[in-house]
Amino acid sequence: MKDVLDLPAERDLPPEAALAMRARILGSVSPPPPRIPRLRIAIAAAVLLAVASGAAAVVWDRPERSTMQVLAMGPGELSPTLQEAAERCLQWNSPQRQTRQNPGERPVPVSLADLAVATERGDRALVLFMNDVGYATCDVEWAGTARESGGGATEPWPHGDLLPGPVQRLLLTSTESDGGDVSVSGRVSSRVHRLVLDHGDGHTTTARLSKGTFGLMTSDARLKASNDPQLVSYDSGGTEIDRRPLFRAEDQLEHCYTGPDGKRIYGKPTSDCRPAEKWGR
User: Fold this and answer.
1) Is 273 exposed, middle or buried (0-12, 13-18, 19+ CB in 10 A)?
2) What is the distance between the alpha carbons of residues 165 and 54, in angstroms, rounded to a whole number?
3) Per the count of CB atoms within 10 A, which of 39, 171, 249, 260 is most buried?
């Protein structure tokens, strides 16, 4: 997977749009201008602005067309524009195209039935597909129009159904470089019956859970990384079973996690490893 500062997939963009996107991305690593642009970061098992795997950063300079937010958990809840975004992502991540353009990579075949989480705000959409093989995700702007653009990523699961504890965050977008509003999605184990984003300032946002996946969107949350927002998991009895910083890379979590054979598969080497948990679909 790519480093967070690598450029996103541009193969479906016109040359002019690709060059403009490249300039915006490189400009985002400098001190922000007086008018802070909207920053969207798609992350697979990684963290906002961290040097970790699976991150692609895109800066969107144009103000949003609408403040309406939509969260869908599965293909049956898609709005027409989310349907367009999902279909575009399937085209971008088709095994035939992936194999032709990246012969050394292992493409993940996904279909609309594999759609786990989709979020939408204004003219931008984010979709995440998951199945037994792996995942595919895309960030799409102006889906279904002549101005359509975006990027995507796809990868097989490195450890199958095993998760780094009760929660594995797969995708995170943020409206600002240090927080703002966020959209988050991923996988959970069967122990998780409730998942909450603790903003760190006395406010919370509850995630939707469906078939072992979760999704949440905040609205006017004004999250700050300095407040250390955290994802908090609860079991069926309401007992807290896990708490982890939202903006922390998977390989920098407090605990490491081991597979059935006792070997470490997630997290940094420590003496305080815990058993990996199984995806609770």
Assistant:
1) middle
2) 19
3) 171
